[in-house]
Amino acid sequence: MKMAALCSEFGDLAQIKKQLISVISLCKERGLLHSAKWASELAFSLDPLPKDDLPPTPPFTEEDAQDLDALTLAKSYFDLKEYDRAAYFLKGCCSQKAYFLYMYSRYLSGEKKKDDETVDSLGPLEKGQVRNEALRELRVELSKKHTARELDGFTLYLYGVVLRKLDLLKEAVEVFVEAIQALPLHWGAWLELSNLITNIEMLKSLSLPDCWIKDFFMAHMYTELQMIKEALQKYQNLIEAGFSKSTYIISQIAVAYHNIRDIDQALALFNELREHDPYRIDNMDTFSNLLYVKSMKPELSYLAHNLVEIDKYRVETCCVIGKQ
Fold first, then answer.
1. What letter would DSSP give residue 308?
2. How many CB atoms sit inside 10 A of residue 294's CB?
3. Dihedral through CA 34, CA 40, CA 45, CA 50, nearest 10?
């Protein structure tokens, strides 16, 4: 996409900010915290909106009113990771929001049990055999709703996750594309889709909506497919279009430079990122690779101590400690 077309598409940054604020709320209500975090970081990089320009709250249906008490109770259990308990109180609810949280609670319950069983298992063979026992049931139920065209953008996303976990990858790609078309602003669906795209031909064959978020996705995909020149151009276009304060974009450009072994550029960007967001742990394992390659031992040691103080059990922290 040429710069002129991109600028015209991104002309109304206030409108994009409104869309982000709306989708943050929708994701939080459904426990989709990583998607809410991504949208929140992007929204933070844009100028605040005047009070009168803030987006209205989503319409509240009769079904929402009927399920309100059960949903409020179940969400409190969900937030405390009591997934089976949340699902129990949501069973029989009829609103789209309650149905998503009901199915998502069952999915996460299965994932938690699988993780617990994996920790308890004795050897690598047994470990590899541990499965999320909820997946097949969820697939049957979601498949019926899908055939009846009763799934919204969020439940389509969950259906795609279930299919991917069952290694039904072709079906998963189709459903993720459907989820994106139904709800283009849900970054989680784009990210799940990106994990299934293996080459540029496959990427070009997908029927994706022409929405501003597609440029973020294409930049991400170019990085994943090692098309670094194209990725850097996309990110530069996004910066010039009004996203210059986005820490997400700074981190992605740093990762892109890391991937082409432009160590000095990548280091400069990671240091800039740390100034803007000193408690950030995302991508710090990549930063530590660069410090290790440059034999910057004092800086690597400082980074490791700093991350341990923030969150000693995060995967990225363990990676950084391992390089000391």
1. H
2. 13
3. 170
Q: What is the pLDDT of residues 174-229, one digit of tens each?
A: 999 999 999 999 999 999 999 999 999 999 999 999 999 999 999 999 999 999 99
Q: How far is CA 229 from CA 145, 217, 223, 291, in A?
A: 42, 15, 9, 23
Q: What is the pTM of this model?
A: 0.91
Nearest Cα to Cα of residue 284 among 246, 245, 323: 323
Residue with structure tokens 């390659």? 293
The angle subtended at Cα 278 by Cα 272 and Cα 24, nearest 5°, is: 100
Cα–Cα distance for residue pair 304/310, rounded to 1 Å: 10
- 209's torsion region: left (phi>0), alpha (psi -120 to 50) or beta? beta
d(CA 234, CA 218): 8
- In the chain, the amino acid numbered 173 is V
Q: Which token pair is 234?
A: 């996309």
Residue 269 corresponds to which tokens in the numbers above? 């960007």
pLDDT at residue 129 in the model: 66
